[in-house]
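Weekly modeling sync, notes
Attendees: S.R. (lead), two postdocs, one rotation student

Agenda item 3: backlog of single-chain predictions. S.R. asked that every request posted to the team notebook include the full sequence so nobody has to chase files. The rotation student volunteered to paste the first one in as an example of the format we agreed on. Action items at the bottom.

Example entry:
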Amino acid sequence: MVDLFPERIETERLVLERMCRENVDIDELYWLCSHREGIEEETEFLSWDPHSTPKETLEFVAKSEENWDDASDVSYVIRPKEGEDGAGEIAGNCGLHIDWKRRTGTLGIWLRKRFWGRGYSGERADSLIEVAFDRLGLELVSVSHNAGNTKSRRAIEKYVERFGGEHDCLLRNWVPMDDEVNDVQRYTITRERWKASREEDES
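Predicted structure, as returned to the notebook:
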């Protein structure tokens, strides 16, 4: 039987491993996701808060396993390959939320600050977009960022443009975060434009 999702994905500099208890040490992940130095800056524009207990981290990983099994959301741990600074460490996690009715996949990522500025966001996006279109047969990939998150905007625009995607719109009052509801910028890439961009690269 062929698995719907790849358990492991290798890119030029990264390894993406399925987010599950077999691949992740809960205590290590808890420390990375808890109230350590720098976590507030890393999660400033994300929809989750730093974890308060190891139980919260365990529940997060268990939910990732559940979502994988019901094919609604796939999550991966990001690890730099040998030769990269921090090789083998958990650099963050990423995922693809799947809306089968709309034939759409939505990208998400969290990276630890020490791994910012390396182009890892675009590299994992390349691989997950390929999964969405080639393996899952989806028709659209979307990605959004908080309207005030300029770092994410620059990273997203690079790979969206590379694959012939476009900025769709500003979604006002879209993401509840603490006591506020934030605006987000939404971008999309169609399978047709992604395929055409790949063919241009190969020609």
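Discussion: group reviewed the output briefly. The beta strands are 8-10, 14-18, 73-80, 92-99, 104-111, 140-146, 166-177, 180-190.
Action items: rotation student to repeat for the remaining queue; S.R. to check formatting next week.
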